[in-house]
Amino acid sequence: APSAALAVLALMAGNAVVMRAPRSIALSTMWLMRDVVGPLLDEVGAPAGILNAVCSNPKQTLDRWIASPLVNDIFYIGG
To answer: Tell me: the pLDDT tens digits for 4-33?
Structure first.
């Protein structure tokens, strides 16, 4: 969850974020995004879908993100 909190900086800069929640702490990461960050985004009028989270295999997810023409940048913390 502490690393996931860095997604807030990307959001503050006007970016949409898709976060890969680590399988070992998926619940705390999802809680942080849904119950803390989500309401704050609603309060400031952020558009729906600006923050998303998935819990998946790290290598497969990164390989797909890197290959996708829809992904402009990747900020990745983890193994």
So the answer is: 667 778 888 888 888 888 788 788 888 888
Helices (runs of H) and strands (runs of E) counted in the chain: 4, 2
Q: Which residues of 27-53 are buried (b: 16+ CB within 10 A; e: fewer)?
A: eebbebbeeebeeebeeeebeeeebeb
Q: Specify burial of residue 15 (Cβ count, 10 A radius: 0-12, 13-18, 19+).
A: middle
Residues in the chain: 79
Strand residue runs (E) in the chain? 17-21, 51-55
Interior angle at CA 40, CA 7 and CA 28, nearest 5:
55
Which residue in 54, 65, 64, 62 sits closest to 79, CA to CA?
62
How far is it between the farthest Cα atoms of the chain? 35
What global pTM score does this model have? 0.69
